[in-house]
Amino acid sequence: MDFAYDAKTQDLIGQMEAFMDEVIYPAEPTAHEQIQAAIKDDTWSPPAILKDLQAEAKKRGLWNFFLPGDQGAGLTNLQYAPLAEITGRSIQLAPAAVNCAAPDTGNMEVLHMFGTPEQKKQWLEPLLAGEIRSSFAMTEPKVASSDATNIETAIVKDGDDYVINGRKWWITGAMNPDAKIFIVMGKTDPSADRHRQQSMILVERDTPGFDIERGMHVFGYNDRDHGGHAEISFTDVRVPASNLIGAEGEGFAIAQARLGPGRIHHCMRSLGIAERAVEMMSKRALDRVAFGKPIADQGVVRDWIAESRVRIEQLRLLVLKTAWLMDTAGNRGAHTEIQAIKIATPQTVEWILDKAIQVHGAGGLSQDFPLAEWFAGIRTLRFADGPDEVHKNSLARAELKKHA
Amino acid sequence: MDFAYDAKTQDLIGQMEAFMDEVIYPAEPTAHEQIQAAIKDDTWSPPAILKDLQAEAKKRGLWNFFLPGDQGAGLTNLQYAPLAEITGRSIQLAPAAVNCAAPDTGNMEVLHMFGTPEQKKQWLEPLLAGEIRSSFAMTEPKVASSDATNIETAIVKDGDDYVINGRKWWITGAMNPDAKIFIVMGKTDPSADRHRQQSMILVERDTPGFDIERGMHVFGYNDRDHGGHAEISFTDVRVPASNLIGAEGEGFAIAQARLGPGRIHHCMRSLGIAERAVEMMSKRALDRVAFGKPIADQGVVRDWIAESRVRIEQLRLLVLKTAWLMDTAGNRGAHTEIQAIKIATPQTVEWILDKAIQVHGAGGLSQDFPLAEWFAGIRTLRFADGPDEVHKNSLARAELKKHA
Amino acid sequence: MDFAYDAKTQDLIGQMEAFMDEVIYPAEPTAHEQIQAAIKDDTWSPPAILKDLQAEAKKRGLWNFFLPGDQGAGLTNLQYAPLAEITGRSIQLAPAAVNCAAPDTGNMEVLHMFGTPEQKKQWLEPLLAGEIRSSFAMTEPKVASSDATNIETAIVKDGDDYVINGRKWWITGAMNPDAKIFIVMGKTDPSADRHRQQSMILVERDTPGFDIERGMHVFGYNDRDHGGHAEISFTDVRVPASNLIGAEGEGFAIAQARLGPGRIHHCMRSLGIAERAVEMMSKRALDRVAFGKPIADQGVVRDWIAESRVRIEQLRLLVLKTAWLMDTAGNRGAHTEIQAIKIATPQTVEWILDKAIQVHGAGGLSQDFPLAEWFAGIRTLRFADGPDEVHKNSLARAELKKHA
Amino acid sequence: MDFAYDAKTQDLIGQMEAFMDEVIYPAEPTAHEQIQAAIKDDTWSPPAILKDLQAEAKKRGLWNFFLPGDQGAGLTNLQYAPLAEITGRSIQLAPAAVNCAAPDTGNMEVLHMFGTPEQKKQWLEPLLAGEIRSSFAMTEPKVASSDATNIETAIVKDGDDYVINGRKWWITGAMNPDAKIFIVMGKTDPSADRHRQQSMILVERDTPGFDIERGMHVFGYNDRDHGGHAEISFTDVRVPASNLIGAEGEGFAIAQARLGPGRIHHCMRSLGIAERAVEMMSKRALDRVAFGKPIADQGVVRDWIAESRVRIEQLRLLVLKTAWLMDTAGNRGAHTEIQAIKIATPQTVEWILDKAIQVHGAGGLSQDFPLAEWFAGIRTLRFADGPDEVHKNSLARAELKKHA
Predict the structure, then answer these.
(1) Do A172 and A92 have their domain in common?
(2) Residue D98: inside a domain, yes or no?
(3) Under an 8 A CB cutoff, do B379 and A365 touch?
(4) What is the CATH number of the domain that holds B239?
(5) Partner of D89 for a Cys bridge, out of B129, B288, C298, D276, CB 3.0 to 4.6 A?
(6) Among candidate residues B208, B224, B251, the one where a domain is terminated
(7) To the nearest whole angstrom, how far is the Cα of D120 from the nearest Cα of chain B?
(8) D82/D174 same-domain check
(9) Which pLDDT value is given to residue D290?
(10) Which residues form a coiled coil (chains A, B, C, D) (predicted)?
């Protein structure tokens, strides 16, 4: 057992920290202004400055960390974890700047693992190059998203095409006009075995019958920085049969392969949010004077700061161990731990953000600080891929089995 | 000791419930659309339907409950409490519909108690008639709002006028063009005793030098339904000396007189929010099926519902007792209890809203339900008139004194 | 609605407070010594000083408050509530001193309501006079106590007698040799309807076949001050048929009639424990100096004290309202509220005791202060008459029904 | 970074698990009876069966794991951690069986590091052989134990002797007659620098003037299994000068060296308690039927089990990382992490034990299960070496410094 990062990771951490200090943090005010302008103009492109950040990241070789092997940075999950955490410190800019933003990472992994050479050429390459963005359309408004087998969208073979009908929502990134390609999950064979009914298929943004209906809000935010969360309808959407990913009936298995890494990436980045919140809370507490002394001298504020540190340290180690398990025992071998961090992360980070907000006073809830928006984002993790309660139930079942 | 509402209160509760069922709830979808349109058009008038609701309320005699005596409904705080709670069930519409919305209620009380006949004629009468709205400008961005003596805005006598310079923020209702009159707190004599430096003065919306700079967001919301929360600057704003409320140096005392009722009214209405959240949570739990049975059958969901009921019942009784104390022992005699409900209310209602959101799934955070917006509103109460931590500290000091 | 105690109650509160100040508190050190000696000698009689306290209470007319009507003090539940709370402040002595201690109160109520004249003469009269004590034997080790219909003890008619076989545990007071009479619940007709199988019968302590097997511990305490909690076996215990309370099959109904008041009395007294804990916590915080200042100056300690006050105030009002409901709508009409206070009370008081202990340092867990023993007692309330989880489930069902 | 135990550790884990299964668990019922008999007889020797367990452990080579180097098992802290955790599963027997029980471990470390050859021969050797036990006398009733510089006990040089006067309490293990030697901390020079006033000195049990006054209770337990917690007085206790450990003035430094490992050992063992509690809770939930189904099917119980797992996994990793830091950066380099686990451990384990108790019903609080006694033990950790609040304050200060 060894708790030190390996040399390669330490080197990349150093590079990423330099990139944050030299490039990302200085860009935040401009990005904030550009996003505020987008809200005013009701446009959905990411802040223009992002292109510059991506160019600089590429130049520095800080790119596609998430993808193992030659096409990516060749890192293990464990090596990637602290880098993803660092990007979480500037969640609106840094993940996208190094081409490690959700949902594209998951989509690239799917194409990387299951795509045909033609699919890779047409879609994976521009995604890896950061030239386009993508979305993943699974969740549906009418059925509980905690069970992927409930999905109702129909994907019906018709000659050399498939025809898609259905409705999706909470499709992250879809409002961004750069999101050129959608991976859509639906049912090709409702009469097959429960886990063999689903397939995944690629749908281009401008396909007739594909309609982006509206952006979902989270609290009052519409998350323009990362393309919002759209409700989408598919009305007789026709795509060539060659757009199918893998074979018919493999949709559920592909989704499972995609979900594990997706969940841990969220947790990694959330740690970065938590660390930045502690930093902001500490600085504010040192600066802000009330009743004649800095509020950092107040016992309750110190209690919050200490508790934050104690909770973060524990959470990070479990995230790292989970990454290590994924590397050594596979996603399936890390199943329980992935559930555990999915449960623990929003609990911990929400608590910290709440306290950081409180230390900032009413301003902490406003557009003058990012804390409330981070809170909103973290709050969604308690539902993402099914509510925590479903995961707790499953985790308890596994625990009970050990003692039966 | 008697826990039954008196006959008058019971009668008014019946009338208010009928008004909610027949008028307010049916108007909610239209109001929601009008507010969404206002967001799109970036306008700040309240939803047009409000005028109809006010007309109907007036016709039914459901008006100005908050104001004791002839000019209002002649109710005690205890009699008003359950009515205010009922309005909280439709917080965007009902309080304004019966002319019992903050911050106007507090402003009307100030004018009622401290205004000159001319001030009453010019400003109180149209406010009581619901023809105009108003704002209360106390909080400043540069100083801790927990201590009113910190205020920096200058109100300087110059011949027959006062000249005002300063900056305020979180001025609720100010973005609404109907908010014609502002009660502004500032310092007329920085050299006087600590609690005699402040004065209150009336400033009309269109006075030169009075600038509404921007609307503050709360969790991404800008609260258009009740006129937002503005940042405002005063640059050599000149008003006639007759606009002063009371005498010079009485500002702090007037503020204190205003704060007690203001706080309890928030708590009363918050109970209505909590009750409606429990109702929504229960209905949703009964309707929504997951894994083959309604989620109302899940033990964890039942635990949330039971806890919500247990917490609401306790909180309501403390709010009612506080109202009774204000009636029988005065605002000062109810000081500790007002602090107690100010601390207890957001804790309780936030917890319930969080659970109600969770039962609604991701939709619970979106514009499809009001829950997340209510959460944002309740969250601000943990700062309003100073953070909870300040009130807890003061309450503890009072407790310790008993045992010293 | 009126939150003031009536004149009679206020007068009795004054008398009880004088009794506590003049008689009970001064007796605590002696009682503590006598109980410590009993532990050493392994004897189970209550502290000898109790007889003196009872004599003084009787002399002052502070006696049998719990019992309505002529034979008791003629108080309503609402009038009794603050008096019971006061006795809770010295939980080892005061309830017994005024003959209002569990489980005797419930047993006296049962005999009062359902006893024959002979039973009353033989058992109720000496109980009301404080000459003997009693126990109530319902809970059994083998079945879940949350459902009284599970009870397995057999009560079989045999000529003019009943013969009892079975095993009970957690029979409070039974180790005390003064506990001369036991009300035993068992089944007379296992083939009857589910709620008509049970009967209650009186068993004298010295009846052959009645064996007190052992005292149950609670966190290491054996609760000698109130006669411990015994495990008891009944082996062919023969009692005359005239010992039956009410008719065969009425046992469940009698138990229900007994449980409501029993639960609220526990809650009333627990409030007294909480108040004394806040008092002790405050005094200790003022006296104890750490790092150069009293710990009452520490923000975290103040937070605990303020939270304690806020929680107690809410809880007391719900307990009082429940008492009022029992008086005005009957035990059945107060069913939900009784469940609510049964859930809320241990949560609140446990939390306060934990903080009071922490303020006392390690000594707070020891025999030098009563705090840890109170904690142990309060902790048992989360199981008493079925675990909280059962009550929450039932309360949630009632709430859901309102919205179905 | 690597989360796998090394081969040596894995081998020892296997041996320890076999020892638990074959020797310790089967001995628990006998030990329980022997301890109950000791309570009855008011004797303080450990259960007689312990000698057999120690003999068997020695035979298997499972001995003195805690001590690095030749005289001990030569393990790092990281290697020791999982073994200590396993002993925590049977906290009354296993740590003592393998001669790794507090406070002896800390005392042996002190003698190992700072003892003279004579002191080692006379005291360390029989301790390492498990022939005698020992105590550590630092805490005093009159001063806050959170600051070791407060200590008042006087150690005065008088010719070739030192004469000790003072009073200590919470001296763990001291009631056990086998505790032959005490390490006593006191002041040799009250006029020296604040951290140079203290010295440590060895005092034999039968020295004149050394009086064991009483055993402190924790809740109602007196912890006979590990020699209780004594209050001790020193009245002109005279010991040879050669009994001094190290030089005069080195007491504070020695105490610091002792505290770090002591704290982490408690945390390691507490993890074992938590794991066994989850095991007991799971088994009980599977076995116990209520309302027609095992309570393992209840959502709330599953929530507790899942949360327990999630919290334990995080806590264990932080304990392990802290051990690794102590190995690689020294006790001082692990200072913040030691504070963090001291804060986190009782929070986590108390919560789990509370839930395990609740699943066991009232029996869970009684002598029929060890859960309540474990709870009592864990509760003391929130005070041990100063209350958590002091450690949180210090940890927060360290965090704030990073951002100043």
Answers:
(1) no
(2) yes
(3) yes
(4) 2.40.110.10
(5) D276
(6) B251
(7) 53
(8) no
(9) 85
(10) none
In a domain, B79, yes or no: yes
Is residue B247 classed as helix, strand or coil in its secondary structure?
coil
Give the best residue of A291, A297, A298, A305 to mutate against chain C (max C CB count within 10 A).
A298
**Residue D178 shares a structural domain with residue D276:** no
Neighbours of D25 (CB within 10 A): 14
Q: C370 versus B260: which is more confidently predicted? A: C370
CATH of the domain at C349: 1.20.140.10
Q: Yes or no: say if D61 and D245 are a contact pair by the CB < 8 Å rule.
A: no
Say yes or no: B39 and B88 in one domain: yes
Buried b (16+ CB within 10 A) or exposed e, B267-298: bbbbbbbbbbbbebbbebbbeeebeeeebbbb
Average pLDDT, chain A: 95
CA distances from B62 to A342, B9, B80, B108 (A): 50, 12, 11, 17
Same-domain pairing of C395 and C267: yes
Chain B residues within 8 A (CB-CB) of chain A?
40, 42, 139, 141, 144-147, 170, 216-222, 288-291, 298, 300-301, 357-358, 361-363, 365-367, 372-373, 375-376, 379-380, 382-384, 387-390
Residue B8: other Cβ atoms inside 10 A: 13
Q: How far is C368 from chain D (nearest CA, A)?
A: 9
Nearest CA in chain C to D171: C362
C98, C12: one domain: yes
Q: B interface mutation test: which of C400, C401, C402 has the most B CBs within 10 A?
A: C400
Quick one: D271 and D339 in the same domain? yes
A346 vs chain B: nearest CA distance in angstroms? 13
Q: Specify the range with the lowest mean pLDDT, choosing from A45-49, A139-143, B306-310.
A: A139-143
Contact, D396 vs A306, CB < 8 A?
Answer: yes
Whether residue C373 and residue D220 make contact (CB cut-off 8 A), yes or no, is yes
Phi, psi (deg, nearest 5) at residue D299: -60, -40
Confidence at residue B20, expressed as pLDDT on a 0 to 100 scale: 98
- Provide the pLDDT confidence category of residue A307 given band limits of 50, 70 and 90: very high
For residue B400, the chain C residue with the least C-alpha distance is: C282
CATH number at residue D108: 1.10.540.10
Do D297 and D172 belong together in one domain?
A: no
Q: Name the band, by pLDDT with cuts 50, 70 and 90, for residue A25.
A: very high
Q: Based on the structure, what is the number of domains in chain D?
A: 3
Domain membership of residue C235 (yes or no) is yes
- Is there a contact between D300 and B300 if contact means CB atoms under 8 Å apart? yes
Please report the pLDDT score of residue B260 as a whole number. Answer: 81
Residue D292 in domain = yes
Q: Tell me the average confidence (pLDDT) per consecutive run of 10 residues in chain B, 404 residues long.
A: 97 98 98 92 93 98 93 94 98 97 96 97 98 96 79 96 97 97 97 95 98 96 92 98 97 90 95 98 94 93 98 98 97 95 98 98 95 97 90 96 94
Last residue of a domain, one of A128, A150, A174: A128
The string of pLDDT tens digits covering residues D24-36 is 999 999 999 999 8
Instruction: Please report all neighbours of A, defined by 3+ CB atom pairs within 8 A.
Output: B, C, D
Torsion of CA D217, D218, D222, D223, to 10 degrees: -150
Rounded to a whole number of angstroms, the distance from the CA of B380 to the nearest CA of chain A is 7
Q: Which two tokens stand for residue A281?
A: 């809370």
Give the residue on D whose Cα is nearest the Cα of A303.
D392
Domain that holds residue D319: 252-402
HSE-up of residue C31 (Cα within 13 Å, Cβ side): 23
Which tokens in the block code for residue A366?
């406003």
B141–A367 CB contact, under 8 Å:
no
Nearest chain C residue to B338 by CA distance is C310
CA distance B386 to C276: 30
What is the reported pTM?
A: 0.97
Smallest Cα distance from C297 to chain A, Å: 9
The whole-number pLDDT of residue D148 equals 75
Which residues in B lie closer than 8 A to residue C320 (C-beta atoms)?
A: 1, 3
Burial class from Cβ neighbours inside 10 Å (0-12, 13-18, 19+) for residue D337 reads buried
